[in-house]
């Protein structure tokens, strides 16, 4: 019978794998609903819509993911729907599953993923694509969408990587672009109506109905043609009633969506063990490298009272002792001072710590930092200048001067902090060796400043560097990527510059990612449908967990490109280190993020001219296109309200 628990078959495998707890389920606030919770129609029609939700990485990474957690709760609140979770299995478990013929199951009801109506996968990074293919295969679901039968789930992807779904177009049935809360409910409605009417037209008709909503992308209904030189000629619908461009889903008024209300508490160790609240969504700082900031516009703040109520409810439901105030730039919330002071006052003496993600240099102040640490421990501070030189920060629109950074760290060290972490990128457009070497000079100046204002020698600064990867729907989507060898050579020079001076060498930590994973991420982030053959080739060759250093194999990816791409007259460099022209049709042009392509090109030219762009939250609109095109608007405070007293029911 469909929907039966497979735990009796799973249990004997658990004693033979590492971290068996990650496959058991039963976390605090998890949900197992009756398989037939939606009931049946007058002629016996199955009216329940069932979702298996996956974050395509290990349990410890996937369980804290806010996106999946929110959708899981939103769907399970519906009486006629159920949602369960699954994650990527480690290689030891995969080997046993294949040997024993045991299919991928959920961690909630241990039900076979293949028996659900929808298999939904959330991609925050493209390096999860091989795990996705592995999950399909382990579930007994046909790898290619064209080969799936009526009894197999609809495969729907979402998350930031879904803004260019073309590299995995052959493997998915549909993609949801943008915010998921309302979108999954809309999809559930469409499936429920199709089921209630007797499933007319089968799988293809259901996909047609989803595509005709205008904001669900069904790749099989679009044809891609190419020019002789390998560039795309055009992407065009081949079905009537299917839109030329797919609209982004945008949730307005976050207070109406206070999720998760009952956050999941992991059974095994996870990367984040805290109760998190998204205090606003979107960012208009305009950092030209930042896909997240571009595709999540406009800015929508949760009110100070909404934040307070979510924190109160979430702490009561979980028992966590830390609250993360999340967004792309949390210190920019118009009521951040009131939020942090109100929360610190509310939980004083209760050992509840507050944390912000990486803080902008120009948004930091000591009062804010003191409120964040009043009830918790004082750890290091993290700032992200991103570019090593002031010239480069103008290119990327990170409007922070060297003196701004020095003034900020002086205030921090003077107020008792001993550690500061600085995050940079290597390989940014127009970057030179000198731009990168200035990171060493900046780090040394930070140490000198800390020693001077604190009068102490135990001052630390950690320099962390990631490789720049051009992303779709950003002004840098046309940029050529720095090659892996060039990236490594530039980082080697920086490492030597930091280590050469004994006065600073022991005080400056240096962490970096080599250039090879970034090149593969670049291939996947700006690839088209032809890249799907490369992904499949790597997966069939054993590729898994490409986001993990110990499993990633650059050589396997290069070999796959050499095997699959020459048939099209292109290669790995064509997708990565090649600069695009203004008129080139990009693989994601039919996905509407709301941003005008003409505006993005103009901003790319401003970058090359080292011209900065203001934040439109506080200045007149500069016509990026999002608000008029999507019928949205910026939602910011202040509301004039206080966080206390809380009125949680």
TrEMBL record:
It holds the Pfam family Radical_SAM_N2. SMART domains: Elp3. SUPFAM superfamilies: Radical SAM enzymes. Residues 269-511 form the Radical SAM core domain. NCBIfam families: rSAM_fuse_unch. PANTHER family: RADICAL SAM DOMAIN PROTEIN, SLL1084 PROTEIN. This is TIGR03960 family B12-binding radical SAM protein. It comes from Nostocoides veronense.
């Amino acid at each position: 019978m469909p929907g039966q628990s497979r735990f009796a078959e799973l249990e004997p495998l658990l004693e033979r794998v590492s971290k068996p707890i990650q496959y058991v389920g039963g976390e605090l606030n998890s949900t197992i609903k009756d398989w037939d919770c939606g009931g049946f129609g007058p002629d016996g029609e199955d009216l329940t819509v069932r979702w298996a939700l996956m974050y395509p990485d290990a349990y410890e990474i996937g369980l804290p993911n806010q996106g999946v957690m929110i959708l899981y709760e939103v769907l399970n609140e519906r009486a006629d729907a159920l949602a369960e979770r699954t994650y990527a299995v480690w290689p030891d478990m995969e080997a046993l599953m294949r040997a024993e013929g045991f299919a991928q199951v959920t961690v909630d009801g241990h039900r076979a993923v293949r028996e659900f109506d929808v298999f939904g996968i959330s991609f925050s990074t493209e390096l999860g694509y091989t795990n996705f293919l592995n999950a399909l295969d382990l579930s007994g679901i046909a790898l290619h969408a064209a080969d799936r039968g009526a009894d197999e789930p609809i495969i729907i992807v979402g998350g930031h990587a879904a803004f260019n779904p073309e590299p995995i177009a052959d493997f998915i049935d549909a993609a949801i672009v943008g915010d998921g809360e309302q979108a999954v409910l809309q999809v559930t409605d469409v499936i429920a109506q199709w089921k209630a009417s007797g499933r007319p037209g089968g799988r293809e008709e259901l996909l047609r109905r989803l595509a005709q909503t205008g904001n669900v992308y069904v790749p099989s209904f679009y044809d891609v043609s190419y020019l002789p030189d390998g560039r795309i000629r055009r992407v065009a619908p081949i079905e009537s009633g299917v839109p030329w461009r797919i609209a982004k889903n945008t949730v307005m008024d976050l207070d109406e969506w206070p999720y998760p209300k009952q956050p999941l508490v992991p059974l095994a160790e996870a990367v984040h063990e805290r109760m998190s609240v998204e205090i606003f969504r979107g960012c208009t700082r305009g950092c030209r490298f930042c896909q997240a900031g571009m595709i999540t516009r406009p800015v929508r703040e949760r009110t100070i009272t909404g934040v307070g109520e979510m924190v109160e409810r979430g702490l009561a439901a979980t028992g966590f002792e830390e609250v993360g105030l999340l967004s792309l730039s949390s210190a920019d919330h118009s009521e951040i001072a009131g939020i942090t002071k109100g929360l610190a006052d509310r939980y004083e003496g209760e050992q509840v710590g507050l944390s912000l993600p990486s803080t902008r240099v120009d948004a930091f102040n000591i009062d804010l930092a003191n409120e964040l640490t009043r009830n918790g421990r004082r750890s290091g501070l993290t700032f992200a200048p991103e570019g090593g030189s002031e010239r480069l920060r103008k290119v990327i629109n990170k409007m922070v001067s060297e003196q701004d950074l020095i003034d900020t760290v002086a205030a921090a060290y003077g107020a008792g902090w001993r550690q500061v972490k600085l995050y940079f990128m290597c390989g940014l457009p127009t970057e030179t060796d000198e731009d990168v070497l200035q990171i060493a000079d900046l780090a040394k100046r930070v140490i000198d400043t800390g020693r001077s204002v604190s009068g102490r020698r135990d001052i630390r600064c950690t320099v962390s560097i990631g490789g720049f990867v051009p992303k779709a729907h950003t002004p840098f989507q046309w940029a050529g990527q720095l090659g892996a060898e060039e990236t490594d050579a530039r980082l080697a020079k920086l490492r030597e510059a930091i280590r050469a001076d004994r006065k600073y060498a022991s005080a400056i930590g240096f962490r970096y990612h080599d250039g090879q994973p970034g090149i593969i991420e670049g291939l996947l982030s700006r690839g088209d449908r032809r890249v799907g053959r490369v992904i499949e080739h790597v997966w069939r060759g054993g590729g898994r967990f490409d986001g993990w250093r110990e499993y990633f194999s650059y050589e396997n990816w290069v070999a796959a490109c050499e095997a699959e791409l020459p048939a099209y007259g292109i290669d790995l460099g064509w997708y990565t280190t090649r600069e695009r022209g203004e008129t080139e049709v990009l693989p994601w042009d039919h996905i509407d993020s709301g941003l005008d392509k003409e505006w993005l090109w103009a901003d790319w030219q401003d970058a090359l001219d080292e011209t900065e762009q203001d934040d439109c939250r506080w200045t007149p609109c500069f016509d990026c296109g999002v608000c008029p095109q999507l019928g949205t608007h910026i939602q910011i405070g202040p509301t004039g309200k206080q966080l206390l007293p809380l009125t949680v029911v």
